[in-house]
Each structure stands twice: as structure tokens, then as C-alpha cells.
Design brief:
Blueprint (H helix, E strand, L loop, with lengths): L1 H21 L4 H25 L3 H28 L7 H17 L4 H30 L3 H28 L2
Length: about 170
């Protein structure tokens, strides 16, 4: 299972790197990446709320739903204000596809196996999103308000990563 999650995360990073090596994303593409990345974690969080075997995992899932829904609300309000229509691209499509594959795998698991797989993915996913924020999204955002939003949500992703790592250690991966 860890190998599968690692493969999904690695493929997401390779796709993002190769796609952006050729062309920097536009603000419209960045907006779609942000919304998609958050929705992927919202969907996984909802699953953890119901399938987590411990209260801590269910609470963490609930926190992911709340926090990432808040970021999506901020992003949606900003693109509406800026009159920008989010534009799909290879990275947002890959995020969605990989997120759907992760959900399908998680739905087949129960108990501690679910918790471990969910937390393993959360650690890898939040690290991948942080890397994408630092290396691609923030440096390529042209609009100052979009860049400010990206910078302002970064600490939440860092906090989520650290919290997921703590739970991962507690559960005993």
C-alpha cells in the first residue's frame, strides 16, 4: 500500500515538474490547482471522518474538511473578485485522478489499515502540495492578491503536515 501511495505522489510531482518545466502556469491554472488540491483533501477527510478507527483520525479528517473548505472559499471569492475563470490543466487533472484513485483504495480498507494508509497519504500529499506551492505556484503567481493568498495558506499546510506526522508516529507506521 505504501508503494502505491508513493507512486501516486511521485507521479503527481513528476507531472507537475515536467508540465511546468516547459510552461509556467497562468493565474487561472494556479486557481484551478488550488481548488482541486483542496477538494482532494476535503474528499479524503470526509472519508476519514466516517472510516477512521480512532477518534484522533476522525478528528484530523474533520479538520482537513474544515480547513481546506475554508481555503477553497477564499480562493473562489478571490477568483470571482478578480474575474478569473479557473482553467484546467495537466496538474489539476492529475491531482483529481490521483485523489480519486486514493479514495478508491482507502474505501477498501478498515481499522488501523485505513488509518495508516490515510495518514501516510496525508503526509505525502501535504509535502507534495507544499513543494508545489514553494517551487511553482507562489513563484509563478502574477496577481499580487493570488500570491498573497498562496503565501497566507502555506502555514496551514505545514501545520497539517506536522499533525499528520505526529498521528502517523502515534499509530505506529
Amino acid at each position: 500500500m505504501k508503494a502505491t501511495i508513493q507512486l501516486v505522489t511521485t507521479s503527481m510531482l513528476m507531472l507537475a515538474s515536467s508540465a511546468y518545466a516547459q510552461t509556467a502556469p497562468t493565474d487561472a491554472q494556479i486557481a484551478m490547482i488550488v481548488v482541486t488540491a483542496n477538494q482532494v483533501d476535503i474528499d479524503a477527510g470526509k472519508l476519514a471522518e466516517t472510516m477512521g478507527s480512532t477518534q484522533e483520525v476522525r478528528d484530523f479528517g474533520r479538520r482537513m474538511v474544515l480547513d481546506h473548505s475554508g481555503v477553497n472559499q477564499q480562493a473562489t471569492a478571490l477568483v470571482k473578485k478578480l474575474n478569473v475563470t479557473p482553467e484546467s490543466g495537466a496538474t489539476s487533472a492529475s491531482l483529481k485522478k490521483d485523489g480519486d484513485a486514493n479514495l478508491a483504495k482507502l474505501k477498501k480498507l478498515e481499522g488501523v489499515a485505513f488509518d495508516r494508509a490515510y495518514l501516510d497519504n496525508e503526509v505525502k500529499y501535504h509535502q507534495a502540495v507544499l513543494d508545489m506551492l514553494n517551487e511553482t505556484l507562489i513563484p509563478n503567481a502574477k496577481n499580487a492578491e493570488l500570491k498573497t493568498l498562496l503565501v497566507s495558506v502555506r502555514p496551514a499546510f505545514e501545520s497539517h503536515l506536522e499533525h499528520a506526522k505526529q498521528l502517523q508516529t502515534k499509530i505506529g507506521n
